[in-house]
Amino acid sequence: MSEAVIELNNLKKYFKINIGIKNKKAYVKAVDGVTLTINKGEIVGLVGESGSGKTTLARVLLNLTKPTDSHVVFNGVNLSKATSKEMKKFRTEVAVVFQDPASNLNPRDTVMNSIMRPMILHGISKKIAKQKAIDSLELVKMDSRYLNSYPHQLSGGQLQRIAIARALVLDPKVMILDEPTSALDISVQAQILNLLLDLQESLGLTYLVITHDLNVIRYISDRVAVMYLGKLVEFGPTKEIIENPKHPYTEGLMAASPILNPHDRDKEKYLMQGDPGSLINLPTGCHFHPRCPYYTERCQNEQPQNIILSNGHQVTCFKYELFGKNS
Amino acid sequence: MNDSPFKEFLNSCYKNRNFMLGFIMVLSVVIFAIFAKQIAPFSFDEAHPEDILVSPCVEYIFGTDNMGRDLFSRIIYGSRITLQVAILGAGLQLIFGVTIGLICGYFGGLADRCLTFMADLTWCIPGMIMALAVVTIIGTGLTNAIIAIAIVNWASYARLVRAKTMSIKNQAFIETGISFGEKPLAIMTRYILPNIVPVLIVTVSMQLPGTIMSTTTLSFLGVGSQPPTPDWGLMVSEGINFISRGPWLCIFPGLALVYTVFGFNILGEGLRDLLDPRMKSQ
Amino acid sequence: MSEELLKLNKLYVDYKVKEGYLSAVKKVSFSINKGEIFAIVGESGCGKSTIAHSILRLLPEHNEIIKGNIFFNGEDLHEYTDKQLESIRGREIGMIFQNPLDSLNPVYTTGFQVAEGIMLDNVSKQEAWNRVINLYNDVKMPDAEKRAKSFPHELSGGMRQRVMIAMMLSRTPQLLIADEPTTALDVTIEAQILNIIKTLRDEYNTAVMLITHNFGLVAEVADKVAVMYAGEVVEQGTVFDIFDNPKHPYTKLLMKSLPRKAKSEGRLQTINGSVPRLTENKPGCRFENRCPYVMDICKIKDTERRIVTESHFFNCHLEKGGE
């Protein structure tokens, strides 16, 4: 049995907001009861449309914001109760790369300063830090002459490489990649994806890759989690999810994902209607029921439970109650 | 390829006419202040009882005042006072404004509400009246006048810094910083502050003329510098008594003031063109 | 044989920049027939949007030099005065952009904004409104009546893009230029919008010029494809030509760098190096510094057009393209 690095059990993150002039209080349930385990050395993809709460989940995982309910367990340590020493260790073991290459680095710092900063913060001497900065640039296949450049002088692909290099300098165990390639061109995207895979294999890293691009997910990840309006609707091995999606939402998402072969265009496909709802006016019952082709009256009134099908494939839908057992 | 932004900046400075003109004007004031002793023919308080209210001539190019002091020398020495006002005033306002703005913008919550309320409060009272009130409480004198003006003016810096901080703090590089363990103080000073420095420089040079004018006004009203300090505002105020017999007593200090303020003003405008992010499309 | 609607003949666009001139579009020629979906695909900065903007004269003023001809229905658009061009803009050629919020006026209801265009043709208010509702139904706007009375900020991104398409359709243009129409939208919404564009082409026989960086869209809807690299069209053909039988080394590599498989089936192909600076106007192939098949001639001589079939050609010194 593989060892769990990140464990979430019914994690919730709500934001309080005021609506209108009357200041009516309301909650945005950005993450609503997510249960998820990420094992050592695997790549988990997290897919969802905008507003599905996937970035909020990442921010909770990084402890940038406190969960409303439940907690993140990292390597067996409960982050809500971690001592400052444990917290410091956590900060070195989890790294992050965000989507926008341009804002990933401090525009006023040279590449060298940006890369060295995490090491200096964690008490590594300047000399060693500098050597490590050069090594890490080599790791992401970039020339060390860029060390004295400023972010605005570099291209998107280069900036993303540097962001990855910086994420690596503290020898993290886990990397959270929030849309790492969606701002890049196709040829650069391929470079970065390959680089990420090479690094993962040689350094034994664990990745959580957040993206809306199913083609990227299919290429890179071992397991896929699908989120819809704050809920995890399906989770399982990539092959299973891509070839045999169970949840009606995943099915629609797969069908909508751009085909990369024009011969497939005449294939009959199911076009999901409606817009991804908003987290503010959540539908009752199953959040997906207004767009679901199979919905029954029960979906409007009751929230479906997690159902475990075979080999780690879990789905949150009433359709499969007969096939699996409730978790 | 590896041109630092600073070098690029210097290059574009040469091409900006406003900036260069303003820079030269302000630089000349600075040179006057530093080498006042060498430039001025007399000391600022050296009286010549035999030459009272002499109109501008070869010996006294700007004439003399009612005590026979050389006006030109006094104006040269006065530039020291003005620069002192500019540096101290801007410094104080910046320290207040930036600290409070960063705290408000970064932490938000109750601290933000209280401090923003205070900033709003200072905007409700006309600046001059409030400054007069403050000086009345803490006593007259140039330093106190500068403090009073700072108490009136900090709010606009605080607001600016607060707004900028709030827009920068959600950027990816800040969140990445926190995620590898940066403390709030480091986030504010190492990440946020350097990114608002360009805006601050522009604002300072745009606000300086106002600060100089307000402090001068306090001196003019008699609650700022005290005689025999060669403060330009004070000199104008003293000269008013002799406006018909010696109009130069008001005109020349006034012109010196206009020159300095105008210099800072176009320097600010030039800097805004150079540093404003909207002009620098990448 | 279908009729030719838009024809570009050796179009050059140069931008004036600090260091001199930037050649954003170089020697681009193609034609779009009536009722055809023509995709221009390329990576950022390859000049695809510049082409669209130069057709409608929407480029920033006094900053560019355009050479070559743009024929629309056989007439040279360059000889049109600004006023004449205005009568074509929106009426004969419609354009939708990546971010529809920028194109809608926030203080009027969307229905009114669509009706406004219709009323220019001396149509009564009531009838214009009815047409708006019909158009909204055509673009599959849910709850058309209610949405016509909504303000832009009350609609989701997908609905706004529908409003833009409805607005364009109200004038029944012959050509719709869609510049990255779905880039800001979620995949499920993207699929809906593409479906609308396809149905509308079938119903109104509108030609569509689809500008995108996303090969998924191209595979999904395009009839013909022009692949651009650094301001030049490197290869052009039917969608099947390009996907099944790419010839130009760039297209070939690009096809292999699309993530269509899982990592267990092998790594993606990558293209090394980066796009050259387009300010140095030197002869030769612009892909030369990244091309795995580069020869000496590529650096000194402009490429030649190689015809594969009647519909398919590529620009390369290699007679057979990259193998």
Number of domains of chain B: 1
Overall pLDDT confidence of chain C: 85
Regarding quaternary structure, how should these chains be classified? Answer: heterotrimer
Morphology call of chain B: elongated
Helix content of chain B: over 70%
Distance between the termini of chain C: 33 Å
Number of strands of chain C: 12
Helical/strand content category of chain C: alpha/beta
Topology:
The complex is a heterotrimer of chains A (327), B (282) and C (323).
Chain A: E1 4-19, E2 24-39, E3 43-47, H1 54-61, E4 72-74, E5 77-78, H2 84-93, E6 94-97, H3 111-121, H4 126-139, H5 156-168, E7 174-178, H6 186-203, E8 206-211, H7 214-220, E9 223-228, E10 231-237, H8 238-243, H9 248-256, H10 297-301, E11 307-308, E12 314-315, E13 325-326
Parallel strand pairs in A: 3-8, 3-9, 6-7, 7-8
Antiparallel strand pairs in A: 1-2, 1-4, 4-5, 9-10, 10-12, 11-12, 11-13
Helix pairs in contact in A: 3-4, 3-5, 4-5, 5-6
Chain B: H1 5-15, H2 17-34, H3 36-39, H4 71-107, H5 109-124, H6 127-138, H7 142-168, H8 172-179, H9 184-220, H10 232-239, H11 248-275
Helix pairs in contact in B: 2-4, 2-11, 4-5, 4-7, 4-9, 4-11, 5-7, 6-7, 7-9, 8-9, 9-10, 9-11, 10-11
Chain C: E1 4-17, E2 20-33, E3 37-41, H1 48-55, E4 64-72, E5 75-76, H2 82-88, E6 93-96, H3 100-103, H4 110-119, H5 125-138, H6 144-148, H7 157-169, E7 175-179, H8 187-204, E8 207-212, H9 215-221, E9 224-229, E10 232-238, H10 239-244, H11 249-256, E11 305-309, E12 312-315
Parallel strand pairs in C: 3-8, 3-9, 6-7, 7-8
Antiparallel strand pairs in C: 1-2, 1-4, 4-5, 9-10, 10-12, 11-12
Helix pairs in contact in C: 4-5, 4-7, 5-7, 7-8
